[in-house]
Design a protein that fits this description.
about 325 residues; alpha/beta; Rossmann fold; UDP-galactose 4-epimerase, domain 1; three-stranded mixed β-sheet
C-alpha cells in the first residue's frame, strides 16, 4: 500500500545533494514543509544561492557549500533518513572538452555519497539518472526494462555506472533505492538546454538562428513541476530494494518545431541555419521518447504536455 508524502516524510531528516541547482531547488521547495530537517550540500558551481535563499531563515533548513568530490562529507550524513542525490554535471556537452568531468562529478561523487551513507547506516537513496543511459534505443517509447543499454555519451555512461554502483550498494549493505531516468526537464531556473539557448541566440542575432544538427531531432520535454510530482510519487514505492522509473512526457516535438514556437512568441522572422547531421553534438540522442506507463500506474498525471511545458518555460524566460 502506498503512503502519502506527508506520511513518508513525517519526522524525517532529508539530505539533498545539489539542492541549490535547477532540479534540487524545486525539490527543496516541495519537501521543506513536510520534513523535520533538510540538509543541502552544493558546491554552487552550477547551483545558485538565490534559488534557496528564501529558506535560510527556516530552522528546518541547513545549507553547506561542499565539494562532494574532494572534501570529507561523512559527518553531514549523520542521523539522515533519506538522501536525494541530485548533484551532477548538468551539461552533456561539457565532456567533449574535458573527458573527466562526468566521471568525477557524476560517478565518483555518487560513490562518495554511497560511502557516506554506508558509514552512517543511511538506508534510502533517491537518484536522478537520465534517459541517456538508453543510448539510441531501438524501441520507442522506451520502457524501463529495455535490455540494451548502450550509452553514446560520457554523460550517459557516467549515469549508468552510477546506477550500477547504487544497485550494488543496495544489495551489499541493506539499502533501498529508487532511480529516476529523466527525459529533458525544463523550467525557468535551468541555465542550459534548447529553449534557453535559442532565446539567448535570438536576443543577440534576431535575424538568424543557428540550430545544431538538422533540426529533426525529436524528444519529449517535461516541466519541472511535473517532474517533481512524479518523483515524489515514485518514492512511495519502496517495495523493492532497487527500482527504476522513467520520468518524462508522453508526447514529443522536433527541435525545428521548438524554434518556430520561440520565434513566433518573440515575434521574429528569423532565418534558420543548420549545422547538419542528425545529432546536434557528439553524444546527442536524436530520437528520445520514454514509456512512462509505470509511474502513471502509481497515479501520476501530467499537468503539462510537451508543447504546453515549452510555452510555459518560454514565457518565463522571455518575461
Amino acid at each position: 500500500m502506498n503512503i502519502s508524502m506527508e506520511e513518508r516524510l513525517e519526522n524525517k531528516n532529508v539530505l539533498i545533494t545539489g539542492g541549490a541547482g535547477f532540479i534540487g531547488s524545486y525539490l527543496l521547495d516541495r519537501l521543506i514543509e513536510e520534513a523535520n530537517e533538510i540538509i543541502v550540500l552544493d558546491n554552487l558551481n552550477t547551483g545558485k544561492k538565490e534559488f534557496i535563499r528564501k529558506h535560510f531563515l527556516n530552522p528546518k533548513f541547513k545549507f553547506y557549500k561542499i565539494d562532494l568530490l574532494n572534501q570529507k562529507i561523512d559527518k553531514y550524513f549523520k542521523n539522515v533518513d533519506e538522501v536525494w542525490h541530485i548533484a551532477a554535471n548538468p551539461d552533456i556537452r561539457v565532456a567533449i572538452q574535458n573527458t573527466r568531468t562526468d566521471l568525477e562529478q557524476n560517478t565518483l561523487v555518487t560513490y562518495n555519497v554511497l560511502e557516506a551513507m554506508r558509514k552512517n547506516k543511511v538506508e534510502k537513496i533517491f537518484f536522478t539518472s537520465s534517459s541517456t543511459v538508453y543510448g539510441d534505443a531501438e524501441i520507442l517509447p522506451t520502457p524501463e526494462d529495455y535490455g540494451k543499454l548502450i550509452p553514446i555519451s560520457l554523460y550517459g555512461a557516467s549515469k549508468l555506472a552510477s546506477e550500477a554502483l547504487i544497485s550494488a550498494y543496495c544489495n551489499s549493505f541493506e539499502m533501498k533505492a529508487v532511480v529516476f531516468r529523466l527525459a529533458n526537464i525544463i523550467g525557468s531556473r535551468s541555465n542550459h538546454g534548447v529553449i534557453y539557448d535559442f532565446v539567448n541566440k535570438l536576443r543577440k542575432t534576431p535575424d538568424k538562428l543557428e540550430i545544431l544538427g538538422d533540426g529533426n531531432q525529436k524528444k519529449s520535454y517535461i516541466h519541472i513541476e511535473d517532474c517533481i510530482e512524479a518523483m515524489l510519487i515514485g518514492t512511495n514505492n519502496l517495495n523493492k530494494n532497487f527500482d527504476i522509473f522513467n520520468i518524462g512526457s508522453d508526447s514529443w516535438i522536433s527541435v525545428k518545431e521548438i524554434a518556430k514556437i520561440i520565434c513566433n512568441y518573440m515575434k521574429l522572422n528569423s532565418k534558420f541555419e543548420f549545422t547538419d547531421g542528425k545529432r546536434g553534438w557528439i553524444g546527442d540522442v536524436p530520437l528520445m521518447l520514454l514509456d512512462i506507463s509505470k509511474i502513471k500506474n502509481l497515479g501520476f498525471k501530467l499537468k503539462y504536455n510537451t508543447k504546453q511545458s515549452i510555452k510555459k518555460v518560454l514565457k518565463e524566460y522571455v518575461n
